[in-house]
Design a protein that fits this description.
By secondary structure, this protein is mostly beta strands. The protein has two helices and 21 strands. The termini are far apart.
Length: 328
């Protein structure tokens, strides 16, 4: 059996061949080349395509363990289609693509050192470690590119400094997050929360103002033109003073009304348009007071009636007056 070359080009001598020179051939065409395959370096500049030499039995470019692109603008390096790892050092100003002639190639960015593997079926893959098995990346620099990873310290410096954030649910909708440096909470924004802000003094509005969630005014309000308010078509029997100034309700059986939405120390008024049928009789909480100490609503009878409800002490006393009876 004659001598043959291995896929990496080492001379595998047959028995009886190279008499008296067998050791010389072993040293030059096998051992020395094996050393190059393990630790050798092929250095070259690259500004375009390059195919590495791959001759058998002698030194070549493709056999080295390290491919060192020392300069140039980058390009494509074609290696033999043999299963083999390479360490690629890219000193070019542009990316270097390693290919074995197939569709799958590996790209090494400018300034990067990376390991690539040729699988022997025309594919070259870059070695990327994606599972660190609990290990950590340390001594990572601050990000500068939008796709760069960020360290915990970098993110903390841009967000919060060791403050535990509270959870979110439907009750935090529209709320703002506040922190005193130790504790954080969700709540609405007050004037005192805005640096440099102050209460509005003597504002003037044209063409109307819409305010959601309530408005506190200190001082006299001068208004030119009319005002409008929501009317609450009540589904149940609770009159919510915080929901609207006007309410409508129809009853056909005796009905006990309740109150809610009071604010302590504030004057609150509500108008109730009450439609009665089947001689139903309304009744009220014990806090209701009547100008004549006689409940006039018990004798309203069928029809549409307009009632006024007024409190100035947070609902402790609610004055009820009949403003109109049986109107249409």
């Amino acid at each position: 059996m004659p001598s043959a070359y291995t896929p990496l080009g080492f001379n595998k001598q047959a028995s009886g061949e190279n008499e008296n020179t067998w050791g010389e051939v072993l040293n030059d065409e096998a051992i020395e080349l094996i050393d190059t395959a393990i630790r050798g370096r092929t250095a070259f500049t690259l500004s375009g395509p390059k195919t590495l030499t791959s001759t058998n039995g002698v030194a070549n470019e493709a056999r080295s363990a390290i491919l060192h692109i020392t300069g140039g603008t980058g390009g494509t390096v074609t290696v033999p289609n043999l299963s083999k790892p390479y360490l690629v050092i890219n000193g070019a100003t542009g990316a270097v693509t390693i290919t074995a002639g197939g569709m799958t190639t590996a790209s090494v960015a400018a300034g990067e050192t990376a390991q690539v593997a040729v699988d022997g079926v025309a594919a070259v893959r870059k070695v990327i470690f994606s599972d660190f098995d609990g290990s950590k990346l340390r001594d990572v620099g601050n990000p500068s590119d939008p796709q760069d990873a960020a360290t915990k310290a970098y993110v903390d410096s841009l967000a919060f400094d060791a403050v535990d954030l509270p959870g979110q649910d439907t009750s935090t909708d529209g709320a703002a997050l506040f922190s005193d440096g130790v504790n954080a909470e969700w709540r609405g924004i007050d004037v005192d929360d805005v640096l440099g802000a102050a209460p509005i003094s003597a504002p003037s509005f044209t063409d109307g103002v819409g305010v959601a969630g309530g408005l506190d005014v200190t001082g006299v309000v001068t208004q030119t033109g009319g005002s409008v308010a929501n009317v609450d078509a009540m589904a149940a029997l609770d009159i919510d003073f915080s929901l609207a100034d006007g309410h409508t309700k129809s009853i056909s059986t005796n009905s006990a009304f309740t109150f809610s939405g009071f604010v302590a120390g504030k004057l609150q008024c509500a108008l109730l348009t009450l439609t009665i049928s089947s001689s139903a009789v309304p009744s009220w909480p014990a806090s209701v007071r009547h100008p004549t100490s006689v409940n006039p609503s018990t004798s309203l009878g069928n029809g549409k009636h307009l009632l006024g409800l007024i409190t100035s002490n947070g609902g402790t006393d609610v004055v009820l007056v009949v403003l109109a009876r049986n109107f249409s």
